[in-house]
Amino acid sequence: MFKKFAALAAAAALSLGVMTGCGASGTTADSTGYSAENPLVLTLAHGLSETHTVHIAMTQFADEVAEKTDGRIQVKIFPNGQLGSENENLEQLQAGVIAMTKVSAPGLATYNDAFNTFGLPYIFNDTDDFYHVMDSQEMQDFFLSTGDDGFVTLTYYTSGARSFYTKDRAIRTPADLKGLKIRVQDMKSQTDMMSYLGGIPVAMSYGDVYTSLQTGIIDGTENNETALTTGKHGEVCKVYSVDQHAMIPDVLIMSEKVWETISPEDQEIILEAAHDSTDAHKVMWDTAVEEAVKEAQETMGVEFVYDVDKEAFREATQPMIEAYEEQYPGVKTLLDTIDAARGEE
User: Fold this and answer.
1) For residue 314, how many C-alpha atoms fall within 13 Å in the half-sphere facing its CB?
2) In the structure, what pLDDT confidence band is assigned to residue 3 with cuts at 50, 70 and 90?
3) Regarding beta strands 40-45 and 181-184, do their DSSP bridges make them parallel or antiparallel, or are they unpaired?
4) 0.85 exceeded by the pTM?
5) Does the pLDDT value for residue 12 go beyond 90?
6) Which residue has the higher pLDDT, 31 or 313?
7) What's the pLDDT at 21?
8) How far apart are alpha carbons 149 and 124 in whole angstroms?
9) How far is the C-alpha of 278 from the C-alpha of 281, rounded, in Å?
10) Are 316 and 196 in contact (CB under 8 A)?
11) Domain locations in the chain as residue ranges
């Protein structure tokens, strides 16, 4: 606890100069007023370990920003939840205690309801479609349009396609989920999705999943392939059904107050570095998934089921998407943006 408070105090001290606009001269709020000897330090907090592919990508981002600004802007990363949970990091960003954080995109729906979209099932057709849309100019424009909500989004990182897996039952259609207790993320969109599919949603933290699978508190869960190995879920669950019902990105966001203190030229450098880190992460992620599938199959004896009726899942959850469009105006707008991005093809 003491370490957390000490880290918070350090982050707050680093951010104070940004929020008050003190540069090298002590009078300018423009990032060009800083130097390698007296740099603008941007704090970035997140809850991932230092071995996670997203942390590695963000480290590359920090290095590129420092290099391209000749050390005038430096990103100091606090990993491992040193400054608190994801929600706490969001609150700290809004309060100006930290400059940046990494969150799961639907977590931003509290501030902008359009971000509910990223938690909806089957809004992307496949991985290629996901990357095409997320890299489009339309999506970049959306990412930078949320300043009034207190933040802008610099880039995204894939967290793969989420699929169902159980101890011994293949999930080929929604009917296979009927009556099963399935762990989902603690998000409204995820509990709603499971209800529409006929399963029983059980929201719990990721750290509780392994024991809950072992003891039968839950019958199965859903995640990307790497959870089978890094979370050891493949020791308990032996059937992974590749339905790919959701592709929920992580996003790297910056406080709007901080963003406005940065010169247009330096903003471009930061955005370019962020996008480069996304491209690097794609390669790392593909490798991680390939290795996880191989290990799960060869070491853990997990069966991967590919003959899944995805259309049946789409049909079952279409009323949910329509309900969200009606309930959250931003969802309808962002889904239209996604369709417009596809029109570039």
Assistant:
1) 10
2) low
3) unpaired
4) yes
5) no
6) 313
7) 42
8) 25
9) 5
10) yes
11) 38-104+126-157+248-287, 160-246+293-340
Pair 132, 345: CB distance under 8 Å: yes
**160-246+293-340 has the same fold as 38-104+126-157+248-287:** yes
Provide the strand spans (E) within the chain: 40-45, 73-78, 100-104, 151-157, 162-166, 181-184, 200-203, 220-223, 239-246, 250-255, 303-305
At residue 161, the pLDDT reads 97
CATH number of 160-246+293-340: 3.40.190.170
Let me know how many helices (H) and strands (E) the chain has, helices first: 12, 11
Amino acid symbol at 338: I
- Comparing C-alpha atoms, which of 66, 77, 98 is closest to residue 266? 66
Is residue 194 over pLDDT 70? yes
Q: Write the CATH number of the domain with boundaries 38-104+126-157+248-287.
A: 3.40.190.170
The two tokens of residue 138 are 């339309």
Note the pLDDT tens digit of each residue in 200-254: 999 999 999 999 999 999 999 999 999 999 999 999 999 999 999 999 999 999 9
- Torsion angles phi and psi, residue 93, rounded to 5: -65, -45
